[in-house]
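<goal> How does this chain fold?
<sample>
Here is the protein in question

***
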Amino acid sequence: MALPDLTPEQRAQALEKATRARRRRAEVKAALKSREMALSEVLALADTDEAIAKMKVVALLESLPRVGANTAAILMDEIGIAASRRVRGLGPVQREELVRRFG
């Protein structure tokens, strides 16, 4: 599938939107790491915030204190979450299990 031809103005708007989304995700991950936000708050926020909804679950889990790549992979496997899953795509049972494990 070919990418659409964008005008310079459209390209600048798309770049700005992508930059805002990356910054927002970085803010939320930093808040999780410093325990300013709980995982349940982030999952609730994903219902209204497009940038958070499009974050990969593995990146979300790795931003939690004491959770690295291996722990995140093991948890996702135990809960039944695909490695490519995004936060918006989590089912209610998967969300509940993540909240149960991380308070």
Helices lie at 8-33, 39-45, 50-53, 57-62, 69-79, 92-102.
